[in-house]
Amino acid sequence: MTDAAAVAGQFETLELLQAYQHAIDENIISSITDTRGKIVYVNQKFCETSKYSSRELVGQNHRIVNSGLHSKEFFKGLWETIGQGRVWHDEIRNQAKDGTHYWVDTVVVPVRDSQDGRNTHYLSLRTLITGRKTLEKQKEQHVGALEALLVTTSSRVRRPVAACLKQMSVLDDTASAAELNAIVSNLKTTVQELDTFTRELSTFIRDMKV
After folding, report:
1. CA distances (Å), 24 to each of 3, 21, 185, in order?
2. Model-level pTM?
3. What would the pLDDT profile of 123-167 be if each residue is shown by its tens digit?
4. Of 93, 128, 163, which residue is a domain's last?
5. What is the pLDDT of residues 19-50, one digit of tens each?
6. What is the CATH number of the domain that holds 39?
7. Are residues 119 and 178 located together in one domain of the fold?
8. What is the pLDDT of residue 200?
9. Radius of gyration of the chain from Cα atoms?
10. With contact defined as beta carbons under 8 Å apart, do 70 and 94 qualify?
11. What pLDDT is stored for residue 75 in this prediction?
């Protein structure tokens, strides 16, 4: 390879690395910490998402964005994994400077010394998944509401229907006028209960769609 070709290849490699860096900065929240967890680098996407400046973040550890949702055991598992030189992957809910929460799919990669193989830093790469987590939460709420609806329907519909069937079972040619009047009155009350419940059910379903 000629010197000119070698130089051209170096420029191509540099441009590729710059493009790769640009792609990460546009789409990935990235940071680097030392082995004690102190942040030594954050990209602009981290700042935009957390609403902290790089000056506020560098020198701190990631507890600055801790939302308080995850347990100590959760983070203990993280540190045990990366301390052993293995990649850690999970979902984390963080808290921005203004108090809002955001979810990130997180991968933490140990960076090792090429000579002795010891961990020197940890690279964290995160993608925002707040929208997906919000949809999952809404789905859980809807499932819970539907389960409650099934329980309510079972008790609020089966009882009046059973009452109607019981009243109808005693209808025959030997029933007196007073008995018939009582049965009709009970049937009216039961039908009114069913009508009230169906109206409540319609309102409940409409509210679920909002």
Report:
1. 32, 5, 74
2. 0.62
3. 999 999 988 888 877 777 766 776 676 666 666 666 666 666 666
4. 128
5. 767 777 778 999 999 999 999 999 999 999 99
6. 3.30.450.20
7. no
8. 72
9. 32
10. no
11. 97
The distance between the two most distant Cα atoms of the chain, rounded to a whole number of Å, is: 115
pLDDT at 158: 64
Residue 15 belongs to domain spanning: 3-128
* Integer Cα distance of 46 and 37 in angstroms: 16
Can you tell me the distance from the alpha carbon of 161 to that of 196, in angstroms, rounded to the nearest whole number? 14
118 and 157 share a domain? no
| Top-ranked range on mean pLDDT: pick from 19-23, 91-95, 155-159, 172-176 | 91-95
Based on the number of CB atoms within 10 Å of its own CB, is 145 exposed (0-12), middle (13-18) or buried (19 or more)? middle
User: Cα–Cα distance between 169 and 77 in angstroms, integer?
Assistant: 66
Q: Examine the domain organization and report whether 139 and 205 are in the same domain.
A: yes
